[in-house]
Amino acid sequence: MQRFEFKVIPAPRRGEKARGVKTTEDRFALALTNLMNELGAEGWDYVRADTLPCDERVGLTGTKTTFQNVLVFRRVMSGASSATAPAGGRLLLQEPVAAKPRLGPAESPAPGKAPAVGPAKPDLAAE
Q: pTM, whole model, 2 decimals?
């Protein structure tokens, strides 16, 4: 099964100025294109864009909810078999670990004759 690492970055909020790019939509598209091409050159595949809620503090006791736009990218991990998340806060998608069987109560020994316990036999060779 392939394993992936994911990268989530904030979506650009402003467009980039360039010669021949005049409208707001074109500038924003240029900023997004440059960002995606940069990450694509590093091996990242674009997965999706999400808008997620984020609670922020306002004043001493108040909170407000804002929404953050993020872009999700992934790439295949090459030869990594680590079960823990690597440094950098990247998430890993991996095969689920099979649950260990739960053990029940211990079985009592089968009824029967137990060996007799008594004094040790004397060593006849010492005599």
A: 0.57
- Judged by DSSP in three states, 95 sits in coil
pLDDT at 111: 64
Cβ atoms of residues 71 and 7 within 8 Å? no
List the beta bridge partners of residue 68.
Answer: 52
Return averaged pLDDT per consecutive 10 residues of the chain, 127 residues in all. Answer: 91 89 90 93 94 92 93 86 52 60 62 66 63
Cα separation, 8 vs 77, whole angstroms: 16
Q: How many CA atoms lie within 13 A of 106 on its CB side?
A: 2
Token pair recorded at residue 91: 């998430």
Q: Which helix (H) or strand (E) holds 54?
A: strand 45-58
Contact 84, 97 (CB under 8 A): no
Beta bridge partners of residue 50, listed in sequence order: 70
Residue among 15, 20, 8 nearest 69 (CA)? 8
